[in-house]
Write a sequence for this structure.
């Protein structure tokens, strides 16, 4: 009986250590993914600004502000030209949105960053980041904190989950034995 418990103890410690490493590795990729996402977001922002500058230059050539140019174009009787007003308005809104997200992520504290990231997540940019994501071992304080958090989360899930399952099955086993004893 003691050798069985010893084997289970060794197995438990092995699982415990594997989960520590796995949690650290997985969670430490959070800052790396956010950093690669931020680079891609910056690229989208620069491209959107470039496109908006073309519209602004055209508005200036017409002697109008961008807002006036958008309003005039949107009010045009030709449906194709009117749609261009919507495209320009959408480009201006996109620049504003991307800029806001970029600034929010850049200036978020270590503790706020994952929540800011999730709140402002652009799924299209996140998917594109995920397709080319290169895992790395972050050597920053943020990476260390994420790794430690991953270790704690995985260990808590394992140990509390194991105890919960053990308690549930332990009660069932005791409950199942009780009627058998009373019948005898």
């Amino acid at each position: 009986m003691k050798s069985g418990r010893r084997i289970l103890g060794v197995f438990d410690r092995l699982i415990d250590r594997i989960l520590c490493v796995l949690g650290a590795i997985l969670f430490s990729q959070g800052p790396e993914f956010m950093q690669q996402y931020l680079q891609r977001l910056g690229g989208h922002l620069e491209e959107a600004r470039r496109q908006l500058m073309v519209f602004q230059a055209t508005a200036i050539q017409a002697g109008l502000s961008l807002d006036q140019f958008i309003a005039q174009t949107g009010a045009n009787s030709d449906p194709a030209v009117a749609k261009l007003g919507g495209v320009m308005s959408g480009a201006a809104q996109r620049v504003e949105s991307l800029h806001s997200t970029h600034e929010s992520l850049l200036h978020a504290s270590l503790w706020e960053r994952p929540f800011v990231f999730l709140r402002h997540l652009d799924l299209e940019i996140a998917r594109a980041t995920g397709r080319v994501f290169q895992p790395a071992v972050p050597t920053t304080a943020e990476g260390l904190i994420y790794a430690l958090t991953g270790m704690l989360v995985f260990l808590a899930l394992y140990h509390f989950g194991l105890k919960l399952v053990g308690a549930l099955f332990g009660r069932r086993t005791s409950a199942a034995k009780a009627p058998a004893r009373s019948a005898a």
User: Anything to note?
Assistant: The chain has a mean pLDDT of 86. The chain has six helices and no strands. Residues 2-183 form one domain.
